[in-house]
Amino acid sequence: MRDDKRLNFILGAIKAKEPFHVQVPNVGKLVFRKIVPCIFIYRTNIAGKDKMLSNLAKSQLASVIIQEHDTEVAALLRKIALCIQEQFGSCLLVEVWNAANEQAADVEIQLGQKGILPLVEYMLKNLKTEASDIVTDIKKLKEVPCNPSYERLFTLKESMDKSIYTLGLSVRPSYRLSNGDYLPILLRHYSESLGKILLRVFFEYVRLFTDQNPTKFRLNLKKEITANVFAIDKALTAESMRFDFLLLVTPINVPEAWESFKKTRFRKTPVFQYRPMPIDPDIVKRNLYNLRIEDIYDPTIAYLFRDKRRELDEMMSMLADRNTEDFMHGSLQVFGNVSDELLQVAQSILTVISHNSATQTVAPERKLNAKEFAQLAREEIAYLSEQSEDFKTTVRVRSDISGVMVNRGVLNIGEDYQISPERARALVQHEVGTHIVTYFNGKAQPLQLFSLGVPGYEQLQEGLAVFAEYLIGGLSNQRLRILAARVIAVRNMLMGHSFIDTFFLLLEDYLFAEETAFNITMRVYRGGGLTKDALYLQGLMELIDYIKQGQDLNLLTVGKIREDYIPIIQDLIQRGYMYAPLVRPRYLSEAYLPRLDSVRNEGSIFKMIQ
């Protein structure tokens, strides 16, 4: 393609808002996955090409990588920038290069136009939040910043006259050794951190410096995302669907173990039996690490996939260690520990409820059986189905489980299960209104990862599910006691105490009924020691703080996510990788808003005690 023909093609594509990929022989390439008012520029010679900066360019919506010093290319870039400016009213150029050795900061953000100082400060704030170990500073110039080895594309006056803004990123290659070898983990950290921040800077620029709606720049996933993103998402989903972690670590003989434990007068540790292992953890791990996540240039998506692979890897190790002492060590990695603060809150809840309940008597209540509870759940599913015809699931009453469990959007109920009517209303919102709703909202997303659950989603998920019980008026003191007791049982187990020690701690010190104490202890010691049950109370406490900060509760139902993923979720929604929740649970309807407002104004976990 001749130079004039190439230019006409590029300018025509920009005016038609059509993506293009143009290779300039012996010079470089221009890749516009979307026509946007922001161009990322990396100019370098072939010998001095930096892998991190090159990867960073590839992660942007519109990028130019020039590998030779060519004045004609500078003229081409000027014409492209001016054409972009004509289409959108302004244009942002972000040029990046390797810093000189004497630069003190890891990343120096350079600017010459005072008008974009708010944008630079926004970038600095995000970098310090997302990557505090990368030392970042701002440098104000009297001219438009650019790579010192190349000519400026525009003078300061031209930039001001034509509404073309320029940011310079001078990056010290701390991720590279003096012999030129790269430190792969540090390289990835720089690439992903800077990539995510630059995407946010782009949307902030659109919001502040153009009259465009940022949502116009959402990606057309079918056209503009490389196939490997969806292939890896599908592969991670397939590996996750090969097993159900909670089913595999939950005993199948709980009623029999309880009867046996009673017969020994609680002096012999019960023997639990588990389902046969349907997978080989080593083969699953091999499949996971055959996925070429490193080939994904989008830093946010690469981070999501890598984070999920790590969690699945750790779960495979736990399953391989099931019913051994090593299982508990894996649980600490996946589900975390019990902090002193959480323990103190749990102990305080038990103390306060004990005093409040000292003079109260509770009349016996007729229990619903498994089939009756299943009918309540089906009625809730019918209510949710009215919002979307795609919301379809079932309820199963089974003989091979104890209690209630949601498995991939299906509610499973043990055939011997019984529950009070009041508690049943709350549990329906916990299991159906939260666990099943977030499963289907996640399944409606382009990436199926959000139906399976991001790593560490359980804390927010269980906190939200318990909060749902509170919103409909079904969070009883007895339920809070159990959540607090689970924390104490986990802490006791981690201190090295036996099953019997923890059982008697709950029975004698906290006055739980024998079977209740047994079930709490069983849940904590199952598999070899599972710390997951401490997450319910921790998640509820953190959710109350989230609500008091005025945050959006509906966003938490978009899929199975965790709280520190929320900025990522907002980025993905803005870019079109995710959609707003398809279905809204009953407890977020208008009828329950007054109760939510009271928590927002003066909420505390202790104010939930009746």
Automatic annotation (TrEMBL):
Q: Which GO terms describe its biological process?
A: proteolysis; regulation of nitric oxide metabolic process
Recite the UniProt keywords alphabetically: Hydrolase, Metalloprotease, Protease
User: Which cofactor names does the annotation list?
Assistant: Zn(2+)
InterPro entries per record: CHP02421_QEGLA, MATCAP
Q: Name one Pfam family in it.
A: MATCAP
What GO terms are given for molecular function?
metallopeptidase activity
Q: Please, which domain of life does this record's source organism belong to?
A: Bacteria
Q: What is this protein called?
A: DUF1704 domain-containing protein
Please give the organism: Sphingobacterium paucimobilis HER1398
Q: Print the organism lineage.
A: Bacteria, Pseudomonadati, Bacteroidota, Sphingobacteriia, Sphingobacteriales
